[in-house]
Write a structure and sequence with these properties.
alpha/beta; single chain; 9 helices; 2 domains; elongated; Rossmann fold; 12 strands
């Protein structure tokens, strides 16, 4: 897949918004549910043997003869998982859905790595020597690019099965699934459930090609499923276009509705959109990204 380096500079000033609180494995600048050695005071609790005496509030002990330990908010980094669908259906359009999706994945990974978040990038399906890259800072970005540029979309991928297999011992703070979601209804439902279980704040970035939105259906033609190889014959003309548009709209509304009810953030990503615009405007408006400086 292809990644345009020029676009990466345009998104480097962004930061992923923290969903509620962060619970990553390392120190960072995001609020955590844990109490630890942070800077901001959180609460008191009674002293128990073994507590660090430096945390005892001796002023309170002097006034009230109570041994209380100071607790502080612990700021951690965030675990960000980026899942890119590399099944055969992504090998479609101009630009290809796979290339556009890889560009989005690279930008999200870069934003997270620049802010010291714990990042995991996976390709679900496809042909290539590697399926995963990970890191906690910008030095890992070369590994991410290498992964994305080595994998090519191919074959049938059971996204839900791969998402479930990739889940760690606890849900990621944010998980982005970048996919065209072209699956059978029962497979689609399983994929959404797997995405929901994989993250505290799941996001579906739905990749859509202009050729899918407005296909050329003037003439009768054979269509071939890019993953299964199944062929169907469709008649051309106005009736075929209207039937396709109606079916496509129903499918899209069903997908959006399921995401809404399951608490999955749904965002369409059109292949004719500039990726930096997707992240800096649409995703900022949706509260998924923000300025790294904190300015809205």
């Amino acid at each position: 897949m292809k990644v345009d380096r020029d676009i990466l500079r345009k998104v480097s000033a962004l930061k992923l918004a923290t969903p509620r609180v962060a619970d990553g494995p390392l120190q960072g600048d995001r609020r955590s549910p844990r109490r630890g050695r942070g800077v901001e005071f959180a609460d008191y609790r009674a002293y128990t043997p073994g507590d660090d005496l430096r945390l005892v509030d001796w002023n309170i002990y002097g006034r009230l003869e109570l041994l209380l330990v100071r607790l502080f908010h612990e700021d951690l980094n965030m675990t960000v998982q980026v899942l890119l669908d590399a099944s055969g259906s992504m090998d479609f359009g101009e630009p290809r859905k796979a290339d556009h999706g890889a560009q989005v994945a690279a930008c999200i990974a870069l934003i997270a790595l620049l802010n010291q978040d714990n990042v995991i990038v996976r390709c679900l399906g496809g042909h290539g020597p590697r399926i995963i890259a990970r890191g906690q800072n910008s030095s890992a970005f070369g590994e991410v690019i290498h992964l994305l540029e080595q994998v090519e979309p191919a074959g049938v991928s059971q996204l839900w099965r791969e998402i479930n297999a990739s889940r760690g011992s606890k849900a990621a703070d944010r998980t982005f699934l970048i996919s065209d979601m072209l699956q059978e209804p029962e497979e689609l439902e399983k994929t959404l459930r797997a995405l929901k279980a994989a993250s505290k704040a799941p996001v579906l970035l739905h990749v859509l090609s202009e050729l899918e939105l407005s296909p050329a259906l003037d003439d009768a033609q054979h269509l071939v499923d890019s993953e299964t190889g199944e062929e169907i014959l469709i008649g051309g003309g106005r009736s075929a276009r209207e039937a396709y548009e109606e079916a496509f709209e129903q499918w899209l509304e069903l997908l959006k509705g399921r995401c809404r009810r399951m608490g999955i953030h749904y965002l369409p990503v059109f292949t004719d959109q500039d990726v930096s615009e997707v992240l800096s405007r649409m995703m900022r408006k949706a509260g998924v990204t923000r300025s790294a400086s904190g300015v809205a």
